[in-house]
Amino acid sequence: MPKIKLSEKTISQIKEICAQFDNQEGELINVLHQVQSKLGYLPAEVQEVIAKELNMSVAKVYGVVTFYSFFTMLPQGEHPISICMGTACYVRGAEQVLSEFKRQLNIEVGETSPDGKFSLSSLRCVGACGLAPVVTVGEKVYGRVSPQQVGKIIAEYQEGCPSEAQSA
Amino acid sequence: MINLTIDKKPLVVKKGTTILEAASSIGIDIPTLCHMNLHDMNIENNPGGCRVCVVEVKGRRNLAPACCTEVAEGMEISSHSIRAINARRTVVELILSDHPADCLVCAKSGNCDLQDLAHHLGIREIHYQGEQSHYREDTSPAIIREMDKCILCRRCETMCNQVQTVGVLSTINRGFHCVVSPAFEMNLDHSSCTYCGQCVAVCPTGALTEVDETGAVIRALSDPTKTVIVQTAPAVRAALGEEFGMEAGTLVTGKMAAALRRLGFDYVFDTDFAADLTIMEEGTELLGRLNKYLAGDQEVKLPILTSCCPAWVKFFEHQFPDLKDIPSTARSPQQMFGAIAKTYFADKMKVKREDLVVVSIMPCVAKKYESSRDEFAVNGNPDVDHALTTRELAQLINLANIDFKALPNEEFDQPMGESTGASVIFGTTGGVIEAAVRTAYEVQTGKTLERLDFEELRGMEGLRKATIDFDGLPINIGIAHGLGNARKLLEEIKAGKSEFHAIEIMSCPGGCIGGGGQPYHHGDVEVLKKRQKAIYAEDKSKTIRKSHENPYIKKLYDEFLGEPLSEKAHHLLHTEYFDRS
């Protein structure tokens, strides 16, 4: 993994977030959430700063980051697309939906499209099993998605103005 | 108090007792795998993860893990109902289904808790065949990680994080891809691992083992152009016998010397000799700093910290680099021995440096790393060529068809085999500082010590302190074993709150007797206590018990070094530390 150098500003942002949670080791997950939402991802250098601030080992931080599929160490696209592969979504055809996203965007799970617009990930259960199969794009949740709808969802974001997404 | 029955036997135990402890108190030995409890040392690994210890509790829907289920009033427990036995066997079969079946050639064969368990449960077939997890092997100068053999018991994590506070190992990833690893899956030699080897000491399988150097030693021994000499660390003699079925705490000093001679070493020497030398150097350094301090020098660094333990040295280089001027600059006995052997002794014997091979037998895996440090080599030729663990020596003895128990007691060779009681106790927590006190007292006061046994410095508590009266001058001494305890003392020093003049630190719980290279204790703390007793018994049996009275040490200074801290001594016996943060 290429080394990146964090700017002073980024470091102080991370420190601020840690301080909001009183630099408590037990708040690690909350800290990671906040930092990822600010920076988009959690590269090694960021984890090192968090470990230091929360006075815990960086191995433990890395352990948590790699445990939860929500956390990512790779930069995400502008619109991160996640397909739920939990049991309910899976049996209702999530795999076909995922294949369709892969085909149309021409990327694999964990990759970002060359224009930086979309990244693709699969996750385990977003807690909306009643809507299975579920796809999330950024904060927006799409329920009962069929492979036929995939093109429409992607198109929503290609114009650069996801009008529906904002109202949802 | 809680009333219950286990296997129909009624018993009364304290509230908070686990089913496992309750059963053990009436002689029922429920099998465990991930669980480990080093009583008296506050070391416990209790994740309840492996499910091998499940028992049936009447009225409870599911089986209960005995290691982490507390007893409750009226419980009726069956430790070997057919349901419990079947579950236990299924659990072990499932673990084995994702475990390489290379027991015949595994480094841990014969010492593996998983192998023992499969034997104990009579597993003859693995009914589950499926994918196996694979992970690259990671080799460092001291420790090998073979994660294919890891059963995720988390014992290593407990040692690395809670006990040693080194924080290198953590479980990462999820589900089938779960593996114990340093951060970002870096190799151990890129991490801040101290190579203390406590992870190796508690690993139930062959996932964590030491780097095997026995082959290299056999090759050296069979090379007629080489003179091969060996040194043995103090703690080895108190534990080696265990590898041959002898009771823990049996001293095998004489048999060990005999075995080494039969293995073909040209000279059988003792690291204890170098331990005496360490006391001369470190003790002189301590008194030098102390007297400067007493004379009002505000610049002087106190407390002085011992520097014999390579894992401890690496620990402060990573974690407290700003304190690197505080430890003594004295090299460890292993390295002092190597430096003297490849100069003084080589000259005496008229052997070229390149033709002299120095092997050390250590209770430690970090010694392998220490001997590979650049500063301990001359033109690429290391002062110590190979550092074997106690376990590796046992393996060599077996290979050479030596009936260890039947060996006579033999003496070490001279000049580097002579040692005092002070050097023997280097092998246990409290021993280095007691040895230093015996010499420093007499040098400082000019008086003869009336008693040599400083009981106040001995024991097994993780942190201890004592004040020794140097003829009217009170000297405050701190002792820590286990790096987590060491960290507490270092934080105090950093905060300017330390009350000590001198501090002894050993990385492993119990000191070197509990080293990562010793025969596996399999979670039994009594083994360490017996080894400690043996060490003090050997000290008592010695005629000379103060380092500065070792006649060969005196001779070494007269003939070669001059005096402690001389220029030559500085060059050969002292070192520097590096910021590795």
Number of helix segments of chain A?
8
Order of strands in the sheet with the most strands of chain A?
Answer: 2-1-3-4
Shape of chain A: elongated
Secondary structure tally: strands of chain B: 22
Rg for CA atoms of chain A: 17 Å
* CATH architecture classification name of the domain at 279-331 and 419-573 in chain B: 3-Layer(aba) Sandwich
Overall description:
- The complex is a heterodimer of chains A (168) and B (581).
- Chain A has 168 residues and is of the alpha+beta class.
- Chain A folds into two domains: 8-67; 79-167, Glutaredoxin (3-Layer(aba) Sandwich), CATH 3.40.30.
- Chain A is built from eight helices and four strands; from the N terminus they run H-H-H-H-E-H-H-E-E-E-H-H.
- In chain A, strands 2-1-3-4 form a four-stranded mixed β-sheet, with helices on one face.
- In chain A, helix 1 packs antiparallel against helix 2 (28-39), helix 1 (8-20) crosses helix 3 (44-53) and helix 3 (44-53) crosses helix 4.
- Residues 162-168 of chain A have low confidence and may be disordered.
- Chain B is of the alpha/beta class and 581 residues long.
- Among the domains of chain B are: 2-120, Ubiquitin-like (UB roll), CATH 3.10.20.740; 138-210, Alpha-Beta Plaits; 279-331 and 419-573, 3-Layer(aba) Sandwich (Fe-only Hydrogenase (Larger Subunit), Chain L, domain 3).
- Chain B has 18 helices and 22 strands.
- Chain B has a five-stranded mixed β-sheet, with helices on both faces.
- In chain B, strand 20 (463-470) and strand 21 form a beta hairpin.
- The longest helix of chain B is centred in the middle third of the chain and has 24 residues, at 271-294.
- The A-B interface holds A 1, 44, 47, 56-63, 66-69 and B 161, 166-174, 181-184.
